[in-house]
Amino acid sequence: MALNKRKIGSTGLQRRVRPRREDDWEMNSADNQSSSSDDDEIEERSSRRPNPGDDDSEEDDEDDSEAESGSNEDSEDDDNEEPAAPKVDLSSISFGALAKAQASLPPSKRRSKSAPTPADDDDDDDDRQPLPRQSSSRKDDPKPKRSSKHAPQEQSSKRPVRRGRDFVPDDTQPRRQQYRDPRFDPLVGRLDEEKAHKNYAFLDEYRDKEMADLRVQIKKTKNLTEKERLKRELLSMESKKKSRVRKEEEQNLLKEHRKREKDLVAQGKTPFYLKKSEQKKQLLTERYASMSKGQVDRAIERKRKKYAGKEKKEMDYLQRRSRS
Length: 324
Known about the structure:
Helices cover 60% and strands 0% of the residues. It is mostly helical. Helix 8 runs antiparallel to helix 9.
């Protein structure tokens, strides 16, 4: 009696199973139940088959051995392949479970998901093209238009309007920025020139040193243009110094005159106020008194040439006017 040799299929305990996480066990429990039910059905079908003769039994044994080897290979392939991810409703999963799943992933997979591949970078670089450069000049901006010629002109809010704007702007001359010194502002109070001159007397010493340095530079420089520039600068500083000296002389003259008048008023006399012409005469007499004879002659000659030039200009003007 030929025995029906049948090899019992591998049970769930004998199968090679990879360790899984708790989340994977919960998600794949349904798949394991379905696979176990399929194995039971295969065993029941094999037990219900009729027993043939010896020749047939040998052939069946060979077929069974081949089938078992094939099933073993299939099981190994199934073990090597990862189980297909089931379709899960993401709305039913809590955020805590998602956070745990993300934390359980290795860092390499996280980087692969977040970081783009070099091929994608190349495609992005190919797609990127340099944008046309836009000029931010005000010339390209269109001027605001009025609805009619009687309507007021619309001012742009991007450029603030100055508070001290001119109603008739003069674009021919460039605007110069006016600086303001609050120390000499009339709103602060009346300026005491004598006191200010005493407080800033050290500036005169600085100016004298600068003039001495300019004279030395004029002697050393060989460049004609640079020498002319230094000479003009020195001449302007000397003229400013002369004007300051004359102003001081006028102030000293008025100061002495007021002092004398106060003494006369104290004696019971009426005060006498100097006119501009009298002030000039007294200034000239005091100035010539401090000069030598040659300096006085040169000063008088300069004055004579100055007045002669003025008279000549006036005569030329009168002659042109009479001809016309």
